[in-house]
């Protein structure tokens, strides 16, 4: 076990006691030292202005001795939207860190690096950046490379942070955020996914250059409030001077965003949902609004992933960066409406909005739902939404302190009139049946561990 592993283990749960001021205290100490790191790295960057596409400097974007920060906030779709943005940036030759949470198997998964070789963190790293005229408007001058951070990179970041005694006060997620800030030192762009999101999130201490809000809906009500107005207000207060807002389920989110943008003097751009009718017989008016090769790239993606891809495209377009969908790297974030076998779909969705997205995918099919969830999720609402598609519910037994007690899940299934049983392992799964494995990251992780052993 590494020193970092031991440190994280003592931090315990992802959800530490809520302290709205703690991360600001820690960041105030780290900030000048991080700025020094970024300035040292910037000396090797030939042209800082190359990070500001032509015409964008007049809109308030300016060269700076730090990575260009794209902050991804919202409730659903943060990970996939951020990954699509990262793939677009990488295609243009930029060095990118994509910070996500939580992880499926290894902590390292939270730190996804594009165009940074493994040895890069020990040497000056920006000299290999492509000439921007070779990759303007998304031209693929060379194939982008992608990987997760290795153990030595994370250990180096950990050792750097340990120089500051105040870092001991950080929560698990706050510490992960600070590790990402160190790893971003040699990157051109830092695509940073918020945790719970909003004004009190640890990622919101950063001065983002661009904020991208995915759909905002009900989740984490114990921390964010019980109304969509409360949840949206808390999240949207973290917007930066340049903000994109994805199409929203609750239209009051739009008016709240407009009000906060006015207060902050922020430029707010709304991204339309062009996929509401994409499955109808004549979606030609929608296809005409898509960029070239977008349809071909996205045709095997789930409907919600198509929309997230479009939001990512619009985000990149807003800072003058194009995408060549004919050669864009395939989406590689696991467990997002992913088929691991022709009849097995896995997804880490864990709220009502995600349940509606699953219904869009399975359509008229009846599926066997392999499911469990945390006790703070609304399992009754989720199963109620999925009921029309459920042939049978199989409860996956998960070892986790926050998992919903089995008797409560059984009681919910009985009240909803859903046939249920206990998941009996991969050998019990039938080739002539369709399965959806749905729930939190811990649920999907447990299933995948069983599935991989069986294979």
- Envelope shape: globular
Through-space gap between termini: 28 Å
Mean pLDDT: 87
Question: How many distinct domains?
Answer: 2
Main sheet specs:
8 strands, mixed
Proportion of β residues?
5-15%
Q: In the CATH hierarchy, what is the superfamily of the largest domain?
A: Mur-like, catalytic domain
- The SS-based structural class is alpha/beta
Global Rg:
22 Å
CATH architecture of the largest domain: 3-Layer(aba) Sandwich
Helical segment count: 15
- List unreliable stretches of 5+ residues: 58-62, 120-141, 277-282
The CATH C-level name of the largest domain is Alpha Beta
- Quantity of strands, as a count: 14
Q: Helix content range of the residues, please?
A: 25-40%
What does this structure look like?
The two termini are about 30 Å apart. The chain has helices at about 5-10, 20-40, 80-90, 150-160, 170-185, 220-225, 230-235, 250-265, 285, 295-300, 305-320, 350-360, 380-385, 405-415, 440-455, and strands spanning about 70-75, 95-100, 110-115, 145-150, 190-195, 210-215, 240-245, 265-270, 340, 345, 365-370, 390-395, 420, 435-440. With about 450 residues, it is α/β, with parallel strands linked by helices. The protein has two domains: about 5-320, UDP-N-acetylmuramoyl-L-alanine:D-glutamate ligase (3-Layer(aba) Sandwich), CATH 3.40.1190.10; about 340-455, Protein-Tyrosine Phosphatase, Chain A, CATH 3.90.190.20. The chain is built from 15 helices and 14 strands. Residues about 60, about 120-140 and about 275-280 have low confidence and may be disordered.
